[in-house]
Amino acid sequence: MTRINLHPIASPMPLGFFTVAIASVLTGCLQLGILEAADRRAVALCVLPAFALQFLVSVLAFGARDVVAATLMGTFAGSWLAYALVMGVGAAGGHRVLGVFNLTLLCFGALMAAVTRPKRALWLVLVVSLPRWAATGLAGLTGADWLGYTAGAFGLLVALVSAYAAYALMLEDMRGEEVLPIGRSGPAHHAVEGDLGVQLRNLERQAGVRRTL
Prior knowledge:
The chain contains 8 helices and no strands. The chain is an all-alpha fold. Helix 2 packs antiparallel against helix 3. It is globular.
């Protein structure tokens, strides 16, 4: 007789989204001029924990075999670490380097947006992050103030969307059902709404079950 042990583990994604929201507020306020240029090091120090928290979320997501979420959270973690180190130490040419870095993130995000749409919460956060990465990258390369303000405004929008996604997922975990709409579709919808038969579909092809990858 085959025995299946189910270990209910809460989703780490609310933590990841809340971390994105908090870090985006701080960096957005700096870009908008609400925080002064002299506050950059303090902002960098406040953003640095976002790296550790999102790296943790990425590791937990890999453990749950959610490769898409793990990849995105790991990339966000790396971006916060890069920002915190460059801004914290006041590295020469930091704005230009971060400009190129953000444009590279833009290319990565555009590719990931094509595969994350069924995971609508991740997809929405990613979609609103794309114009922010574009504006931040161009602002770093050109030094145009209006691009910096635009990036800051998009940063606050990223924070709002991330906070909503985190809150919706927390309510869902607490009540065991969708409370606020997230808009899942395809496999992501079936994973939440489907029965056990749906969950075990193609189990023999999953990593850890196959003899080789």
